[in-house]
Amino acid sequence: MTPTRTPPSPRRPAGQAALAWALLAPALLLLAGFTYGPTLASLWQALHTEAPGLPAAFTGADQLRALAEDPVFRQALRNNALYAAVTVPLSVGLALAMALWVQDRFAGRGLLRLAFFTPTVLPMVAAANLWLIFYAPDIGLLNRALAWAGLHGPNWLGDAGTALWALMAVTVWKEAGFFMVFYLAALQSLSPELMDAARLEAPSAWTRLRRVTLPLLAPTTLFVGVNALINAVKLVDHLFVLTRGGPNNASTLLLYYLYEIAFKFQDLNYAAALTLVLLALLGAVSAAQFWLARRIHYR
């Protein structure tokens, strides 16, 4: 029996290829102008040192070595690691709890959803100014409540032991409502037949949540967790209003330190080296995302 041969696929006309590149051109230009171009420029600046009136001199990895020896950078890195380790699980866990609460029908559900989502629509600067009313040392609402209980409240933003935790509270309060929307949409998309079967097999609500609901929400959890982790690196708006990195760099985060180096101290080469470190951290987050995505079942 003579085997059949598959005919070769016809070549695409040149006009189709030209049309495809023309459609891709706007996105490619934006990526080149605002992503790849600045990244290459930061790499060049990180490897050179410039002085007024003198040409740029190649210094290799000296900027990165100086960054590794910088105590403020190490403090900002530790602060950011703690900041992410606390805000990410709290924001995601609180968002899931709120979504589970407001998914069922009950009186006042719409108002409760609105209350949970309201912090999301506020700009971070406005939210930080609102929290100043709570954190003020003597007249703030937190210290007034502690005074009524016979306790002396701390200077929440002026004490090195509480400043970073105060920033974390603002971040969790601001982000949990936003992530709740994704969880609520995912919960409403679950198959009613599957959930009815789960109720028959597992009468316990905790067992259904652990064995059925959470595994089905794994893709949403991955998406929300990665976004929360990226936000933990890039959110600095509230630092300008609440602490400005103080006291004594106790609340300085990496992106705020980058801002200070680039715009306050005008050391663009050192700021470029810090930018590369931030890009490497975000690249590691993306790599972890792709690694986890292979182990998650998408319906």
Automatic annotation (TrEMBL):
<dbReference type="Pfam" id="PF00528">
    <property type="entry name" value="BPD_transp_1"/>
</dbReference>
<feature type="domain" description="ABC transmembrane type-1">
    <location>
        <begin position="77"/>
        <end position="289"/>
    </location>
</feature>
<keyword id="KW-0812">Transmembrane</keyword>
<feature type="transmembrane region" description="Helical">
    <location>
        <begin position="114"/>
        <end position="136"/>
    </location>
</feature>
<dbReference type="InterPro" id="IPR035906">
    <property type="entry name" value="MetI-like_sf"/>
</dbReference>
<keyword id="KW-1003">Cell membrane</keyword>
<dbReference type="InterPro" id="IPR000515">
    <property type="entry name" value="MetI-like"/>
</dbReference>
<keyword id="KW-1133">Transmembrane helix</keyword>
<keyword id="KW-0813">Transport</keyword>
<dbReference type="GO" id="GO:0055085">
    <property type="term" value="P:transmembrane transport"/>
</dbReference>
<protein>
    <submittedName>
        <fullName>Sugar ABC transporter permease</fullName>
    </submittedName>
</protein>
<feature type="transmembrane region" description="Helical">
    <location>
        <begin position="81"/>
        <end position="102"/>
    </location>
</feature>
<feature type="transmembrane region" description="Helical">
    <location>
        <begin position="163"/>
        <end position="185"/>
    </location>
</feature>
<feature type="transmembrane region" description="Helical">
    <location>
        <begin position="214"/>
        <end position="233"/>
    </location>
</feature>
<dbReference type="GO" id="GO:0005886">
    <property type="term" value="C:plasma membrane"/>
</dbReference>
<feature type="transmembrane region" description="Helical">
    <location>
        <begin position="270"/>
        <end position="293"/>
    </location>
</feature>
<keyword id="KW-0472">Membrane</keyword>
<comment type="similarity">
    <text>Belongs to the binding-protein-dependent transport system permease family.</text>
</comment>
<dbReference type="InterPro" id="IPR051393">
    <property type="entry name" value="ABC_transporter_permease"/>
</dbReference>
